[in-house]
Amino acid sequence: MGAASTTKRRRPRAVPWVLLGLWVAVLALAGPFAGKLGDVQRDRAVDYLPASADSTQVAEVQEQLPGGESTELVLVYHRDSGLSAADRETAADQVAAVAREFKLVATPTGVASKDGTTLMYPVASTAPGTDEEKRDAFVNDVRDVVKAPSDADGLKVDVGGSGALATDASEVYSSLDGPLLYTTVGVVAILLILIYRSPLLWLVPLAVAGVANYLSMGVAYGLNQAFDTSVSGQSSGIMTILVFGAGTDYALLIVSRYREELRRIERPYDAMRAALRGCGPAVIASSGTVAAGLLCLLAADLNSSRGMGPLGAVGVLCALVAMLTLLPALLVLFGRRVFWPLVPTFGSEPKKRKSLFQSMGSSAGRRPLTVLVSGGVLLGALALGAFALPGNLKQEDTFTSKPDSIAAMETLAAAYPERGTQPISVIAPTDRADRVLADARSVPGVDSVERGRSSKQWTEISVVAKAPPQTAAETATIERLRDELDPTGAHVGGPSAEQIDLKDTNRRDMWVVVPIVLAAVLLILVVLLRALIAPLLLLLAVVAVWGASLGIAGLVFGPVFGFEGTDPGLGLLSFCFLVALGVDYGIFLMHRMREECLAGAETGPAALTALRTTGGVIASAGLVLAATFAVLTNMPLVQLVELGFVIAVGVLLDTFLVRTYLVTSASLALGRKVWWPGPLSKARPPEPEASTPELARVP
After folding, report:
1. Listing from the earlier edge strand, what are the strands of the sheet with 156-160?
2. Which of 436, 563, 590, 600 is deepest in the core (most CB within 10 A)?
3. Cα→Cα distances 144→101, 108, 141, 678, Å
4. What would the pLDDT profile of 39-48 be if each residue is shown by its tens digit?
């Protein structure tokens, strides 16, 4: 008996060390793969384009033509007072130097503007191929040749074109990893210190989140190698945000419950077991809901959206595994002293103080219908602001600061208002190339047509429109080209066509993905809550939050931030994230409410108890999640700023308005009907179901 008793006492002490050892082994295995994630990150146009669009077909065929993918640049020489003869001679000498030093598709020919202020030279090279590093080196080498000797005397020289724009975007994405990670860690650290008021405790969940992020990088690389999952700068950045945001949320819930159990249970190991039995099922359910919602993006046709789904799910699930295994192990090994100076001693009682959420619940309980209607009207009024969102984001408006390529685009747009300065790429079957050339020349709005590279299957044709890039007139020309050339089997692409396809595909994806997300999340909620009304209530609430968040964005994007456009993917991505993450918090609240009802409480008191007991930790989690997404607003790309702003605002609305007032007041107003058609909707509460798993008692 004595030996057996000793073994039982020792075994719990060994479990945390075993888990710690397993994590060391996992990190040792994942380490080599995590370091390679940057090697497979791609930010070419084809990595973001719709999978089935015309512009994608063009980009893929261009890679197969002789010499491979062509990197196209425009050398722009400009002087406000007009170019002098010396300026033109300088331009000719520099262009000749570029032609000597680099392998170009053709000898560049200058095109002067009518007002004499600008001279542009289109330049194209197949030397870099599809290698992004070689492309970036080529673009920067060309810039070194043309810029240094000229800018000092007032002659402005910029290197633009699709190749330069891609290089500038690539450099921005490659520079995101460090600042994004450091800023996220800093923000989470500050919030955890304020929440825990401990010099030690905040380090544990933050370190575990860092480990989870490292693991997610390794898993993401494995997915890329096994299934060719797209990895872009945007998707990997969002994955990091989700790991730290969602992971810290789960840590807050676990630590809060663990602190409560330490007051009731003497040994930390036993207290942690009780804490995980209590809140573990809810944490698993909520993370599973987020992952399922993000995986619905696999139904999107847009490559960037479809790739973000798996990476986002990987981030959430890696955070879940780390917080349910490594975090408990470390907390148990550190013991109670990790909470210093507010150590929860065995047998003590927490300080009795009136909760802010108790006051909020009481105010909602006095006039639930008034609170519900007022909140609904407020969200509806805010949603109207979505009509003020600026139009689609143009290429020249995608950066928060103006790189060289954008300066070139603006100069060209002002100097050549009568013609296009960005070629439209047409790929035609070689045996029909002559017919395509003739048909393209006859299309209204076309200024010039020129044959380019050719293979046995395909011939490249460059079309210049009369209208400036990304204007309504150029869009009409592209659409007429597609209609006219479609019978020949030709495809129309290029930067402007890509923007059209992005907008159209995002509209298509909204109609396809949104119903799938709603159906998937509703099904999960019905299974978890064993009701229909409560899940519908939660789903309606998060959709209302999404609409209100876009409305607030519409009120500030233009007037406050000065944004000239909205990213076409903002609606879909913000919807998926806000629905999945918003329902995440709803699960904690409704689970606790259902638990109180199963214990015999009426729905009204159960709703107020759930709000009082879960409000504080959900508010802390909401603040952390909103702050991590708000980190994106400091990034140099407008689409990331817009996405981060909408999600951060939505999380705050969901945390402090919808969960606190609207869901609680709706539950009070509906009473038992909120659990219809489940057994809890009946006149008398049933006995707790023996087969029902223990629901989360989140403190």
Report:
1. 111-112, 118-125, 71-78, 156-160
2. 590
3. 12, 18, 5, 71
4. 888 777 677 7
